[in-house]
Amino acid sequence: MKPLTETEGMTTTADETAANPVVGIDQTKGDFQYKVDYAFDAGTGLTEDTVRYISSVKKEEPWLLDFRLKALKTFREKPMPTHWATKDLENIDFDKIRYYLSQGQKPKRTWDEVPDDIKKTFERLGIPEQERKFLAGVEAQFDSEAAYSNIKDIVAKQGVIFVNSTEGLREHPEIFRKFFSKVIPTGDNKFSALNSAVFSGGSFIYVPKGVKVAQPLQAYFRINAENFGQFERTLIIADEGAEIVYMEGCTAPKFSTSTLHSAVVELVALKGAKIQYITVQNWANNVFNLVTKRGVAHEDAEIKWIDCNIGSRLTMKYPGVVLKGERARGEVLSIALANDGQHQDTGAKMVHAANNTTSNIIAKSISVGQGRSTYRGVVHIPKHLKGCKNNTECDALLINTNSRTDTYPAISVKGDKNATQHEASVSKVSADMIFYMQSRGLTEAQAMSLAVNGFINDLARQFPMEYSVELKRLIDLEMEGSVG
Amino acid sequence: MPAVSTTSLVGSFTQEAFNTHLARVSHLPAWWLDRKRAAYGRFVALPMPKRTDEGWRFSNLSTLTLDGFEVGRAVPGTASSSALPAAASLTYLNNRATARTGDVPAGVIFDTLQNALLKHGDLVKAHLLAQPSKLGSDKFAALHEAFLEDGAFIYVPKGFEVTEPLAVYHQAEGPGSAVFPHTLVVAEDNAKVTVADFFASTVGGVLRPDGSSGHFACGGNDLYAGHGASVSYIALQDWSRDTLSFQFNATVARRDAKVLSLNVHLGARQARHESFSQLQAPGAHSEMLALTVAQGAQEFDQRTLQIHQAPNTSSNLLYKNALLDQAKTIFSGLIVVDPDAQKTDAYQSNRNLMLSDEAEANSLPGLEIQANDVRCTHGATSARIDAEQEFYLESRGIKPAHAQELLVFGFFEEVLGKIENEALHDALAAIIRNKFKK
Amino acid sequence: MSQLVIHDLHISIGDKTIVKGFTLTIKQGEVHAIMGPNGTGKSTLAKAIAGHPDYTITSGEVLLDGGSVLAMEPDERARAGLFLAFQYPSEIPGVSIANFLRAAVQARMTEGEELDATGYYKRLYAKMDMLKIDRKFTSRSVNEGFSGGEKKRCEILQMAMLEPKIALMDETDSGLDIDALRIVADGVNAQRKSAAAPGIMLITHYQRLLDYIVPDFVHVMHDGRIVKSGDKSLALELEAKGYDWVKQEFAAANA
After folding, report:
1. What is the pTM of this model?
2. How many CB atoms lie under 10 A from the CB of residue A431?
3. Coil, helix or strand for A243?
4. Judged by CB atoms within 8 Å, which residues 17-56 of B form the interface with A?
5. Domain residues of chain A, as ranges?
6. Cα separation of A268 and A323, whole Å?
């Protein structure tokens, strides 16, 4: 567990892009790597010592080390969920992963202070520019820790807290401990247990009563090291009547070996609060992306997950909302694009726990080449509730003859005072539509891109403008080479 | 802890019970007896369903038991039933053929399975329990095969059309009686037939839908439709309310064949139904329908699989449940479109009508699609009676109770309306109406 | 002679008041056209009088032959003699028109009284012929898969069979082509000539319908109440000047 000593400059894996134009193209933006010296390295493999190392580096209190060690035990005891999930999970070799890499635990408050090699990465990804343009605050995580974290003064003055999880624990223990691991208990699933054992980084956000943050807060998650596992932990609390939009982006260079990303994200929307959580996941297609995301919406609160999955080898992610207070609203809008060699196993969970709560799920997936997209959903309306409603729509678009899609919803309703409605459809792009556009001079690929963008248009419009433009660009890139 | 772990793997269906059964059917062909022995071996070896089995999600496993039963004994009573309009009928009581009525055209076979095994062994062998169990009940399907004593065999040769329905009454009597009914329908190329299975409990050989004791019913049916054939199959399950019931269906539809199966579920305390349709050649169509009236503490657990194995096939599934009291239903359906089955048109719909605040409806409508030029949709809804529809009826002066009744029967009629034979339709509608009004 | 008296009626949906002091008396045999721009409360008025549970009558009175209907359930109002011809009739899968109408006719008979099936079908077929509805429709589910015109004809068929004292016809002309409009109008006019001619509140957005069903009175509704009344020439004036004219005049009068 000693720091690495690598002195090389930059390497890129752009050659692989040329070798595989379909999968590679979308990663051009994220597919590069600057070699970095890590001051802290937990080594390869997962033992109690790994957990102790992470905890000591972070100078954590004993209760947290205890929490982590218990989680490690839970992780080991839980079987892989392959009785319902893909067998591909068995290809993750937990002994070959590096669980903690960082240059330090305290993020910088200005870009000038960020070490050059890391700063170059984020500049190339356009983060500082976006921050200036339209964000209320940014946290940029590089492997295990945030390298940069800052919030605009005007927002900070309203009492909004936006720090990484280590700082959150240290500086705001009274809020952090109250909500931490309450929405997603350690044993929720095997990967939430893993995250609980080795988590590092992620955002801690608290928005005080009645404060409505006008601009989004953004987090950017970057995996730079090979054979690495990123385990950020995000906790967002919107106090009564508060409103917040949080956006996260993710990239990694494309390595020949697999990388693991396993985050836990917990949201708490207190009475009348609104949280919108937007993800554009564009991991390289060697990343196992196994994420647990859930929010609790109290009385009259609203939680909306906008979840867009384009990259990764396997994504398993089912953002959920527990509708705990009367009239709470939950929403999941999901877009998934699975290209060759990719499996997007995504969906949503809606647990109704109070009267007159409503939930809405709209999931659209696109399977390209031999890509596979899967929707899994849970809608649960237990006994003695009334006035609860769920609406679920899943639409799958299959681009090539051997593209694949699956739909596995589970809807459980008790009593005669609630209503649920689930509809799903599978279709391909109509040949007539493509012909019509070609007859107006578009190439087949352009026509296909337009058709695909049309398919997700009503969802893409819900993204902030900057993101929906980016999304359209990513989809255009993915669609290139998919026809013919 | 669920009681499953304490229930023995064989319960009442011991080696001794199996030997006794085997002795009763020792006159049947050796290949069949071999299959039964192998099936019994599988039954013994297979575990009971576990909570983590995806095929048993939401099912109540603590009440699944193999204990306290006895293979149905001979009881007096030979009365044939006339509950359904039919050209001919066969009646079984506790696994034994007891009566037959009517006639079938020459060339068509409508006989007991035992006779068929002796006289038409090759035909039976090709189709009887020839499809795999894919929906979770391997153990109970093996039990069915092991203890299957007799059933009905319907064979319609090439080009024959049997216009009037054929009815098979499977009856059980006596506390704890275990019955293993089976109906095998083989329609050769361009043949046409309608078959109705009626499962019910009797007392003294007389139909007693209520008041009878509970049974263990573990039945199956195989439907085979050759090229251009048309098979309509109706199963009306009305076992006594203490019965534990399993029904396994396997449907094979060949080129341009049309199969319609309608399962009406009324009886039993816990009823599991598995229906497996294979669309094997272009033009094949399967219409899978079910209607359930769930009352009291009944649990109806319905699992379906529609596999499209060839291009240009279609299937249409409509499962409707009306839930009263503390009843519980589970619908788990899967449409599979194989990689080359382009131009598949598949539909799957589960509608739950919630008529009580304590009822529970679970829907798991699934799709696995591996071809892109397809039309596949599914939908699931759970809701009470539509308020706008109710207002519309009431605004015409119809009293609320009557308006609700009209809407509930309208809900059923969407399924029943697919039965072409009017007399059969009316008979089923009357039985369901009766059940619902109680 | 029956009559419906609507007095100073206020209707709200949730927190929003839609109808704000509507007053009108309709006598049997009269046709009152209610015109007005969209969103002015015309449909709300009709549905609320029929007893739709989504609408709350916050104040005012609706009297049918002197008795209040407001405490009555929708089916009781219907049996008392009110009829609502829906703008968007519900589709009712699995319930045939024959069964549905028989249930409605039976609901009006006293306990123990038997429906004369032969007489019932004779009457039904006669009305269907008049409305040019194919007799096969009797076995079809109510409104299910019907075209717009078929739905509206089916509404008039029900009105003819149930012989209400007062009919509230909500945008009966919407979605109809000229041929369908003529058939529907003929059906209504035939009932106007019968001995048991109902009083009709004819809600419409366009003057066109009034060429076929000539009203005795025309009322212009704006912002939840009647702002102008006249004879059928008012409809023509409206057609010529448009609803903005009413809005301006009304605004000026209130200024």
Report:
1. 0.89
2. 9
3. strand
4. 52-54
5. 10-317, 439-484
6. 11
Question: Two tokens at A87?
Answer: 């067998």
Residues of B in contact with A416 (CB under 8 A): 354-357, 359, 384
Residues in chain A with CB shorter than 8 Å from the CB of B374 are: 398, 426-428
Cβ proximity of B338 and B312 under 8 Å: no
Residue B430 included in any domain: no
Across the interface, do C52 and B397 touch by the CB < 8 Å criterion?
Answer: no
Beta-carbon separation of C75 and B388 below 8 A: no
Q: Which of A32-36, A220-224, A234-238, B414-418 has the lowest mean pLDDT?
A: A32-36
Give exposure, B308-319, as e/b (b: 16+ Cβ within 10 Å): bbbbbbbbbbbb
State the pLDDT at residue A127.
85
Cα C177 from Cα C170, distance rounded (Å): 17
- pLDDT bin (cut points 50, 70, 90) of residue A431 is confident
CB contacts < 8 A, B to C, total 83
Out of A215-229, A349-363, A452-466, least confident range: A452-466
Q: Which of A411, A421, A448 to mutate to test the interface with B (most CBs of B within 10 A)?
A: A411
Locate the chain A residue with the closest alpha carbon to B363.
Answer: A411
pLDDT(C166) > 70: yes
Mean pLDDT computed over every residue of chain A: 89
Per residue in B14-37, pLDDT tens?
A: 999 999 999 999 999 999 999 999
The answer to the question of residue B423 being in a domain is no
Two tokens at C202?
């004819």
Domains of chain C: 3-254 (3.40.50.300)
Report chain C residues whose CB lies below 8 A from the CB of B389. 90-92
Structural domain tally of chain B?
Answer: 1
Chain A interface residues (partner B, CB cutoff 8 A): 83-84, 383-384, 396, 398-428
Shortest distance between the Cα of B54 and any Cα of chain A, in A, equals 7
Q: Which residues of B touch C163 (CB under 8 A)?
A: none
Interchain CB distance below 8 Å, A421 and B52:
no
Whether residue B222 lies inside any domain: the answer is yes
Per residue in A48-84, pLDDT (tens digit) is 999 999 999 999 999 999 999 999 999 999 999 998 9
**Hunting for tokens 């959580």 — which residue is that?**
A277
The complex's ipTM works out to 0.89
Q: Which residue of chain A is at minimal alpha-carbon distance from B351?
A: A421
Give the whole-angstrom CA distance, residue A124 versus residue A28: 11
Burial class (CB in 10 A: 0-12, 13-18, 19+), C129: exposed
Q: Report, as an integer, the average pLDDT of B251-263.
A: 98
pLDDT in tens, A343-386: 999 999 999 999 999 999 999 999 999 999 999 999 999 988 99
DSSP code for B144:
H
pLDDT for A19 equals 30
> Which CA distances in Å does C205 have to C52, C85, C177, C220?
22, 15, 15, 10
pLDDT recorded at residue B180: 98
d(CA A236, CA A265): 8
Instruction: Residue B333: give the domain boundaries.
Output: 3-385
Angular region, C14: left φ>0, alpha ψ -120 to 50, beta rest: left
Q: Do chains A and B touch (3 or more CB pairs under 8 A)?
A: yes
Q: Tell me which residues of chain B have a C-beta less than 8 Å from any C-beta of chain C.
A: 386-389, 391-400, 402-403, 406-407, 409-414, 417
Å between B243 CA and nearest CA of chain A: 24
Q: For chain C, give the mean pLDDT.
A: 92
pLDDT band at A257 (very low <50, low <70, confident <90, very high): confident
**Binary contact (B377, A411; C-beta < 8 A):** no
- pLDDT higher than threshold 90 for residue A481: no
Residue B405 falls within a domain, yes or no? Answer: no
Out of C78, C99, C103, closest to residue B395 by CB: C78
